[in-house]
Amino acid sequence: MNNNPVNLHSDADILAYVPHMLGETPKESFVLITMQGNALGATLRVDAPFGAEPRAYAQSAVSYATLDEAATGSLLVIYTDENTPEQPRPYAAHVQALRTELRIARMPLKDAWLVTSKAWSNYLCIDPACCPERALEEIADSTGNAALIYRGSNVKGFTTPAPFTGQEQARETIAAHKPYGWPEDTEARRSQWDGLLRNPDTLTPVAALELAGALQHPGTRDHLMVDIITNAPEQFTSVLLGVFVTRPDWTRVDTAQELAFELMKATPEGQRAPMLCMIGWLEWLKGKSSFAARYFKLALDDVEGYRLAELLTELVERGLLADCVRDPQKAYNLHLGR
Fold first, then answer.
1. Record: fold of 6-150
2. What is a single Pfam family found in this protein's UniProt entry (predicted)?
3. Residue 270, φ and ψ in degrees, nearest 5
């Protein structure tokens, strides 16, 4: 994806942006988008309230949104098929509580929309003559959606890892390739990994088993993860938190994820946790915390108590955003302005 600005001129453009940012179209969700002047900032998805007390729900959601310290305003998209005939809009009390909390946080709500499985409309305007329900096709046909697709974005949803298709002796071969921490072993695998990130088509069955084995060693695994980001500081902790000097090579990041999925085809259960952590961490760097959490859960299902998965899960559960997500000049998605 390139970093040329894509201007969002219409409501449909913004609604098209949300699935591109989250990786899928939400269901029964509230999506808060922070604004940094006229540019879009972080995107936060939370489950719809379903009876939660309005003020507590709003405070919890806004506490995450305020992690974008550059935010000057916000937008809200409500995805629901809930019906509340006694009120003009579903979850009216929760939206009002959100407006109050966002105003207190100095990131006032600029606009809001309601999206159902059949249509969409402006949430704040209830006059059908002014703001009628519109067809979902308008979102798919919007200029913003076309521009995002042209730039290389693809709404493909959560990708479930493919089942193991390797040889019966793969488990023993991978274990045999686990390095013992010698610098020369680590450097050899780093060089091999860098070559594959530059030319992923050169991945062979032998190389897949070698890298799968290398990832079983925590120190080598950490080096391979850090090596995905070529402009990051040397300290793994800083890289883990998404602290980068300039905008990362996101094409290289996408390639790393694709390679991790390929490695899992050659890796049996019980040895997949490192790849799942890598994929989830890269999703988190992109701002897709919901996807990241699901991969970390798969890692813990694969290896109970896997320490890296536990640490990364804690980042997500605390609502922490990667440093690069909060900077539109470095973030995965394009610097978008309305």
1. Cytidine Deaminase; domain 2 (3.40.140)
2. DUF4192
3. 95, -10
Q: Domain 170-337 is in which class?
A: mainly alpha
Phi-psi region of 181 (alpha: psi -120 to 50; beta: other; left: phi over 0): left
Distances (CA, A) of 309 to 72, 144, 178, 251, 292: 34, 36, 19, 24, 10
**For residue 266, pLDDT beyond 50:** yes
Task: Return d(Cα 179, Cα 62) in angstroms, integer.
Answer: 45
In the chain, where are the structural domains located?
6-150, 170-337
- Confidence band for 233, pLDDT divided at 50, 70 and 90: low
As a whole number, mean pLDDT of residues 304-319 equals 93
d(CA 320, CA 324): 12
- Which of 57, 107, 63, 106 is closest to 78 using CA atoms? 57
Query: pTM score, two decimals?
Result: 0.75
Per-residue pLDDT at 237 exceeds 90: no
Distance CA 232, CA 235 (A): 8
